Amino acid sequence: MRMDALPGPLAELARAQEGCLGRSQLRRHGVGPDVVRRRVGGGRWQRVGPRVVALHAGPLPAPAQRWAALLHAGPGACLGAWTALAVHGLEGWDRDDVHVVVARGRSRGEPLAGSALHLSHRWREEDVTERGGVRLHRVERAAVDAAAWSAGERTACGLLAAVVQQRLTTSARLAAALEGVGPVRHRGALVALLEDLAGGSQAMSEVDLAALCRRHRLPPPVRQALRVDGVGRRRYLDAEWHLADGRRVLLEVDGVGHLDPRRWYDDLLRAAEVSRPGETVLRLPALALRLDEARVVALLRAHLDPDSGSRPRA
Fold first, then answer.
1. Of 13, 34, 40, 75, which one has the greatest count of Cβ atoms within 10 A?
2. CA-based angle 232:234:239, to the nearest 5?
């Protein structure tokens, strides 16, 4: 990238913006359209939409694409949703488009190719921060927006869970952000998920399981049954069925916090320690009780004979 012919302040600005400059920035520093036309025509620069120029002719890496989308959207715009979360460090949830948010009424028309423009009717400057000079939404606002813009509840909940599991923020901060935005898509599922993440998943999953069994006429389980493991520790099972034919089925319902590798290791050992020979041990994610009810019911029916009922604990 050749910047030696640019005025010093403009060259510094170009470096800070990953080699991208807005045409208005060029004009303010004395670089007019004729200069841009010659350099683009000579293959040294390239146009990136009608308002942005890249000071090289090669492909734009992701940071340059983000700058180009912001410069095209104009002053006051910021990165949002999945794009902002990627800049904050979220892994595994990348999107091809660069997501840009502007306050409603400040849009400059169509978004740049390869970007998605969102018009916000609840713009708050306090939701915006900077990283490396790039304006972007804070983790909590970006996460709530991305979840609300997701097509399905499962994806929305998975995204918020990933944000907490990767320690970008806390469930309490996400809950406050969700409360602040008012009615959004998937709100009920997101509120329930955040309560799971905050540590209430045990009680919620018990309520959900009991309701599911009633709706589908499955035997009601014994909840929080006490077991003593092999080294004498007291353990409590989420659910246990004592069936008329003598079989016992144990169910452990895991909130998203159980996906942490350290929890996962302990949980598997715990399940092995509390089970007894001949018992069936099932493990289900808490979210499945709300988002994948048909599959959960089919699984339970396969292990429970609904005609046999259940017997109280001896």
1. 13
2. 130
The edge-to-edge listing of strands for the beta sheet with 234-242 is 222-228, 234-242, 248-254, 280-285
Contact 235, 273 (CB under 8 A): yes
Angle between helices 187-195 and 139-148 (to 10 degrees): 130
Beta strand spans in 28-152 (E): 46-48, 52-54, 78-79, 98-103, 115-120, 128-131, 134-137
Pairing of strands 98-103, 115-120: parallel
Q: Which two tokens stand for residue 232?
A: 């004498």
Percent of the chain exceeding pLDDT 70 equals 87
For helices 293-303 and 201-215, what crossing angle results, to 10°? Answer: 70
Residue with tokens 């959960």: 296
Bin 43: left if φ > 0, else alpha if -120 < ψ < 50, else beta. left
Distance CA 144, CA 180 (A): 10
- Dihedral angle computed from the Cα positions of residues 89, 161, 145 and 293, in that order, rounded to the nearest 10 degrees: 150
